[in-house]
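Reader question, answered in our methods column.
A reader sent in the components of a multi-part assembly and asked whether the whole thing could be modeled at once rather than chain by chain. We filled in our standard form and ran it. Here is what they sent:
COMPLEX SIZE: two components
ENTRIES:
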Amino acid sequence: MSGTHAHSAAFVRDRMIPQEPPPDRSIGALGWLRQNLFSSWLNAALTLVSLALIGALLAAVLPWVVHSSWTANSLSECREQIKAAYGPEESGACWAVIRERWSQLIFGFYPSEIYWRPILAFGTALGGLAPVLFPGVPRRALYLTAAAPFLVPWLLWGGTVWLPVAVAFGFVLGYAGFRVVAPWAGGILGAIAAGLVPVLWWLLLAGKAAGGLQEILPLGIEPVSSRNFGGFMLSITIGLTAITLSLPIGILLALGRQSRMFIVKVICVGVIEFVRGVPLITLLFVAWLLLNYFMPPNTNFDIILRVIIMVTLFASAYVAEVIRGGLAALPRGQYEAADALGLDYWKAQRLIVMPQALKISIPGIVSTFIGVFKDTTLVSIIGLLDPVGFSNSIRADVNWNGIVWELYGFIALMFFIFCFSMSRYSMYLERRLRTGHR
Amino acid sequence: MTSYPDVSRETFRLRMLIFDTRYRSLTIQVVALIAFMLLVAWIVSNTVQNLADLGKPIDFGFLTGAAQYDINQTLIEYTNRDSHLRAAFVGLLNTLLVAALGCTLATVLGVIIGVLRLSRNWLVARLMTVYVELFRNVPVLLWIVFFMAILIETLPPPNAFRGENATASMLLGDSVALTNRGFYIPEPLFSRSLGDISVFGAFDISLDLIAFLAVLAAGLWASARIRARADRIQNQTGLRPTTWYLRLGVVAVPVLIVLVALGFHLGYPELKGFNFRGGIYMRNSLIALWLALSFYTAAFIAEIVRGGILAISKGQTEAAAALGLRPNRIMSLVILPQALRVIIPPLISQYLNLTKNSSLAIAVGYMDITGTLGGITMGQTGRELECVLLMMAFYLAISLVISTAMNWYDARVRLVER
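And here is the structure of the entire assembly that came back:
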């Protein structure tokens, strides 16, 4: 074809032109700038406005952060120190408030000689979470995961060692009940026994057994009352418990909502929609004022425990909705394939449905968890001293009256670090679990 | 069916309730129902017993008693001699007020930020990412108390506006005053007012407002009719008549006539003595709550908008361009209708979240329903159960209305495939 064309056309190039380097304006730093910041008049204007904004912010914030006082004991002393050090016109941050109230903001009124206990408790919790969160951690650490739910509350609240042992023994009893009943009466009755025996043990015998053992062999550490809990320790205690408990409860609620059994479905829908329809603060009011009314007369159980119950309920309903979305996104063929393999309901859920549904719903679940952790600040409204609650009392203090930016900036930074790392972890998890059928 | 002729005639034995899958689900449901009802009955009987022991059986009669407390920001007439019920109603209106203000500002901010985050300008996109991450990862309660503290600590007190050498001055031609007690803005006044109309004797609604809204609604309806006619003509002839001036006139002219006829003018706030008089007074608690909720929710809305626009595949834009549509027509006829279907459901659930988050008003002393019914009324009367139940019922009703609206929208725009 080129031959015939060559006869009719005036000029045909028969050799490739040697490659030229791209023009200077479109490569390198200059090219990048032209492409990304100054591609049109509008973009150039936007860039300049943004630069001016960033410049103004930095010019205002940087000197303020640097020209600061770490040693003063009151706001007025702070201002004097800054004026003496940097000139009479300067104003700077008074980080001294963070230094002075550091232990309160982190531990609340926890006795200072036993700060090692909450530190060890959260170390244990992290150690227990690590093998669940990251695949690189040795599997042996799973023993710590099993022990952490009993170890952490005991370290935080103290008291006799026999109570967590008695509670843990309930699970052993449940397992034993399953092993005894299942071969003799089938898996269903075995599961019922595994559920019923521990509950009876906890309700009727566990407390007495722990008390008896404590009399025979007194082992324990100094008990700490819930009133002394506060600061970020309180936020993390409530947040971590609610997050870990809400995932299994949320899965059960979601399965109940998808169930073909009408009554189970109605109950689950009712619980989920009720909890999602009311603000968390009303549920905290219930925990604060009403939960004791719901119990038999003269029961009075711990305020933090009551708050954890309601926050867990709240988180579970939201997690359930997210997982329902994941279940709905799963192709019907997956359910049918599981049925065709002859798997029963729980096996199909455990091996086929849940691994895929949970993978789909990871971003939603983690953003629910972030929301729950942020919402733990609401406990300040019902009088618990979390960081926000403390900030109110510090601002009411005569010495620190009028302090705003430093205090809230610090608390915001701490929350930002926690929440931002959670969202990064969820992105890492998504990448790791992407099996790539796209 | 035919291969198992004996199944139906098999005698029923008790153990089949557990081991036969045909009856097992029935057993489970009955057991679940009984357990649930036992739990509810146990809680109710405990509660009744406990409340009887305390000498305050469940009774909503306290709602008609005199409230005996003042509410500093009200939309309807209220004095401390009114009943608790009316105080709760005032709080309810305050909740709806801050929710409406917040949803509006959050939508505007969120759409702008979401679109700018997709900007090809690297710096602007990064700045917006920083905004979103900053506001999403810090608790909303912290933002609320933070905004409140900033308003109190950094804005001038009203008396700074006084005297010859005042340290503060009003903005926008002496019409707006920003003070640490709140904002004073001009109020609409009518010199030939129609007066108020009383609704069930409970509260008054301005007839001027009703007239204004009625005329506006009529104008919008007429405008929609004109557009429908233009569509019809375009479908028949292929030529679209120019109607924008007609549609603008049909809305604007009657509204202007009504405003002039009623003698519309603005009442400016003025400094009298130690404080401002006249104008609309928005307390600092309302401002702090409004701004914090809007800025916080805007970060989430921005992500929704961004996700919605990214969800429309590039092929749609290219196909529209291949049909010969111009870029803004591509946006309005092809991209937006599809993106809105993705955006609107989560957007509405953000509105719901904002409304529920407005219950944090209690932290800054704004008297919404949590502040009146769940705050002072509950504290004065000691009727915790009744107050919390009423509050929950109110919020549940709002969620129910909004989710019904959402389901209606969802059903209307759902893609009908296959």
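What stands out: Strands of chain B lie at 177-179, 182-185, 187-190, 196-199, 203-206, 264-267, 270-272, 275-277, 280-283. Chain B has a mean pLDDT of 84.
Send us your own complexes using the same form.
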